[in-house]
Automatic annotation (TrEMBL):
Organism: Methanoculleus submarinus
Protein name according to UniProt: DMT family transporter
Composition bias, Basic and acidic residues: 294-306
Mode of membrane association: Multi-pass membrane protein
Compartments it resides in: Cell membrane
Region Disordered: start-end pairs: 280-320
Domain (EamA) ranges: 2-130, 143-273
GO cellular component: plasma membrane
Length: 343
C-alpha cells in the first residue's frame, strides 16, 4: 500500500492516467483470480473454507467496486503530477483518519480517546501538507485530490467491512476486474492508448502489490479480525514506507512543511497502532457463515454430516450458530465483537 504513490507517479511518465488507473485495478482483480484458480487447481475447494458473497452482499460489492476500484485510483493518478511523491505518500495517511471517522460515526465502532488524539495529529499534519499560500484558496488542489482519494478508499474500507466474512479472493476479483474494465472503456473512449506489454505488465503488478490485490486481500482479512477502525489504524504505518520509496526513486525533495508534518504524523500513527481494548461484553445469539477454526471459545459448535471437512490448517466454512455469551477479554470490533459501548 505504501508504494502506491511513488510507483504510480513513476508509471505516469509512460501511461495515460485513465489507462493507468484501469491497469492497476485490472492487475488487482486478475491477480486475485489467479490465486483463487491456483488454489482450486491444487485441490482446495474454496467453498469449504471461505463463504462466497450472496445476494445480500451485492450492494456492498457494487460500493467497493465504485469507490475503491474506480473513483480512488482515477482521482489519485490525476492528483500525483502536482505533488512531490514523498508528500503524496505522507498525505495518504489521511485514509486512516477517514476510515476511522466513518467507522466511528456511521457504523458505530468504538474508538478510544487515545485514537481521537491520534486522528488529530494526523489531520493536522495533512492540513500542513495541503497548505499552499501561492494557491488561490491557500490550498494545493493536487494535495486536496489525494485527500479525496483517501476519502474514497475510506468508504471502500468501511463497505468492505460488510464483506469481510466472505471469500476475499472472490470479492477482490469482482471489484478489480469490474472497475478496471469500466475505467479501460472510458480511457479508450477518451483517446488514450494501452502502453507496451512490459509497461502494462508493470502497471498491473503495481496494482496487485500496492493497490487492491494482495493488499486488499490482507486488508479484508484484517477487517474480519479487528474491524474497520483498527484496520484503518494500521494503515497509518504504510505511508512511511511510501516516503522511503519516494526519496529513493525521485530526486525531488518535499517542501519544508513536510519535515514538520512527518514527526507529528509519526506520533499519531504510534498512538493508533498501540491502542488496547478490554471490557465485559455480551454476544447475542446469531446464525451466520464464515471461515473459522475451532480453537477459540466462539466456535465450539457441533457439526452435521453435510458440513465440509477441515482444511490442513484446521479451517472450514459453513452455516453455524452462536449461543448467547457474556464474558471479558481483550478484543477488537471483528465480526463477533461489533457491540455497542457506553460513552
Amino acid at each position: 500500500m505504501g508504494g502506491s504513490a511513488p510507483f504510480t507517479k513513476l508509471l505516469l511518465a509512460d501511461i495515460g492516467p485513465l489507462a493507468l488507473a484501469a491497469l492497476v485495478s485490472l492487475g488487482s482483480g486478475c491477480g486475485a483470480l489467479l490465486f483463487s484458480l491456483a488454489g482450486t487447481a491444487a485441490g482446495t475447494r474454496r467453498s469449504h473454507v471461505e463463504a462466497p458473497p450472496g445476494r445480500g452482499e451485492i450492494p456492498w460489492l457494487i460500493g467497493v467496486t465504485l469507490f475503491g476500484g474506480l473513483l480512488a485510483p482515477v482521482t489519485l493518478v490525476y492528483s500525483l503530477p502536482g505533488t512531490p511523491a514523498a508528500t503524496a505518500a505522507l498525505l495518504l495517511n489521511f485514509e486512516a483518519v477517514a476510515t476511522t471517522l466513518i467507522a466511528a460515526t456511521i457504523f458505530r465502532e468504538w474508538v478510544s480517546r487515545r485514537v481521537w488524539v491520534a486522528l488529530g495529529c494526523i489531520t493536522a499534519s495533512c492540513l500542513l501538507l495541503t497548505w499552499n499560500p501561492a494557491a488561490g484558496l491557500g490550498l494545493s488542489l493536487p494535495a486536496l485530490g489525494i485527500l479525496l482519494t483517501c476519502l474514497f478508499w475510506a468508504v471502500d474500507n468501511n463497505l468492505g467491512q460488510r464483506l469481510s466474512a466472505k471469500d476475499p479472493l472472490l470479492v477482490i476479483s469482482v471489484k478489480g476486474i469490474g472497475a478496471g474494465t469500466v475505467t479501460l472503456l472510458v480511457a479508450l473512449t477518451a483517446g488514450e492508448h494501452l502502453p507496451a506489454t512490459a509497461t502494462a505488465a508493470a502497471a498491473m503488478a503495481v496494482g496487485f502489490l500496492c493497490y487492491g490485490g494482495l493488499t486488499s486481500i490482507l486488508f479484508l482479512l484484517a477487517l474480519r479480525g479487528i474491524g474497520a477502525a483498527r484496520a484503518g489504524s494500521l494503515l497509518a504505518v504504510s505511508p512511511f514506507f511510501g516516503v522511503l520509496f519516494s526519496l529513493l526513486l525521485f530526486a525531488e525533495l518535499p517542501a519544508g512543511a513536510f519535515y514538520v508534518a512527518l514527526p507529528v504524523m509519526a506520533i499519531g500513527a504510534w498512538l493508533m497502532i498501540s491502542e488496547e481494548h478490554s471490557h465485559p461484553h455480551r454476544h447475542p445469539g446469531v446464525v451466520h457463515e464464515h471461515r473459522h477454526r475451532h480453537d477459540d471459545q466462539h466456535h465450539d459448535h457441533d457439526h452435521e454430516a453435510g458440513d465440509p471437512p477441515l482444511s490442513a490448517a484446521g479451517e472450514h466454512s459453513h452455516v453455524h450458530a452462536h449461543a448467547e455469551l457474556a464474558h471479558e477479554h481483550p478484543h477488537q470490533p471483528d465480526i463477533h465483537h461489533r457491540h455497542l459501548h457506553r460513552r
